[in-house]
Amino acid sequence: MPLTEFELIERYFRDCGAARSDVIAGIGDDAALVAVPPDTELVVATDTLVAGVHFPEGSPAASIGHRALAVNLSDLAAMGARAAWALLALTIPRAEEAWLAEFAAGLAALARAHRVALVGGDTTRGPLTVTVQLLGTVPPGAALRRCGGRAGDALFVSGTPGDAAAGLALEERRLAAEPLALAYLRERFLRPTPRMALGERLRGHASACIDVSDGLLGDAGKLARASQTGVEISFAAVPVSEPLVRAVGEEQARTLALTGGDDYELLFAVHPEKVSAMLADLPPERWGYTRIGALRAAPGAEVLREGTVMQFSHSGYQHFT
After folding, report:
1. Cα-flanking dihedrals φ and ψ of residue 17, to 5°?
2. Which of 43, 60, 78, 88 fits 121 for a cystine, CB–CB 3.0-4.6 Å?
3. 146-195 pLDDT tens trace
4. How far is Cα 231 from Cα 269, in angstroms, rounded to an integer?
5. For 52, how many CA atoms within 13 A lie in the half-sphere containing its CB?
6. How high is the pLDDT of residue 319?
7. H helix or E strand, kind and range, residue 280
8. Stretch 60-83: mean pLDDT, rounded?
9. Distance between CA 16 and CA 50 in Å, rounded?
């Protein structure tokens, strides 16, 4: 006998997440009720993942659950926020218990790792679509924004962009790779790591920040426009992983790092006078970030190689184009 909506929620989502003392009323009421800490600002993000658009049809259910929360965690990381509560709107073609168990497990593991409580949402029948709304907190006036940069700021990126785009290409069988590289790159797409700890530690250091979800070059352009500046990126400075280089070669690896999406790394600017203090407080070798360029007065986003401006046909993923 198929599960009812109530049974589905009770079985798979009642305890899907961290237990938090600030949740007054969660799943089971008409709406969630949470106690927001005093002297904080609320940070809210929402992302939707659609089968065939944000992940291939037939992707592992645990990965879909993980990614649905990870993309929102990354948005909060880019604001320097700490995550607390989530709501899930899940549309599925049918209530398959094995799929639901795996999906819930993937979501729950990441939620508990970041002390996120699932406090409500909705379930309905239809094409596979997952929407998560995530709420968190930040001290008053401390949130990172895209708009705080200025010309001359140093530009940094965390991690090794391009891995997730290669992982997606492997999932879709548009790319082949040796077993070790294949496993690493697939994992980078299927289970991205939101840089929550780095985002919080960047408060007081970074002048502007954005999460890299639609491609490094495109997102750098967004940060620069919000800050009313331009941006220059050194092609040789863009960090790439050894598995990606083994899979596609160094030239293509850096191109993919600039134009591929789904990395969920942090791209951030730092005023020149604050760079030394940040490097001392957050050693790059420990926190995993690289200096790749600078903001500039002239508008636009450019990539330079040995003084020559490189041309790219793609500068970021966009819907409705």
Report:
1. 145, -175
2. 88
3. 999 999 999 999 999 999 999 999 999 999 999 999 999 999 999 999 99
4. 10
5. 3
6. 40
7. helix 275-281
8. 98
9. 21
Q: Which two tokens stand for residue 286?
A: 């420990």
Write the CA distances from 97 to 6, 103, 185, 231, integer angstroms: 14, 10, 29, 49
- What is this structure's pTM? 0.94
Distance CA 170, CA 190 (A): 11
How do residues 5-32 score in pLDDT, each as one tens digit? 888 888 899 989 999 999 999 998 899 9
**What is the set of domains in the chain, with CATH numbers?**
5-138 (3.30.1330.10), 154-310 (3.90.650.10)
pLDDT above 60 (res 314): no
Distance CA 162, CA 240 (A): 7
Q: How far is CA 313 from CA 218, 259, 290, 300, in A?
A: 11, 9, 24, 14
Which tokens is 7 given? 């049974």
Cα–chain center distance at 277: 26
Alpha-carbon distance 7 to 88, whole Å?
16
Q: Name, in order, each residue with C-beta under 8 angstroms of 223's C-beta and a sequence gap of 6 or more.
A: 146, 149, 208, 209, 210, 231, 267, 269
Q: How far is CA 68 from CA 11, 157, 240, 252, 313, in A?
A: 19, 22, 25, 28, 29
Dist CA 263 CA 85 (whole Å):
23
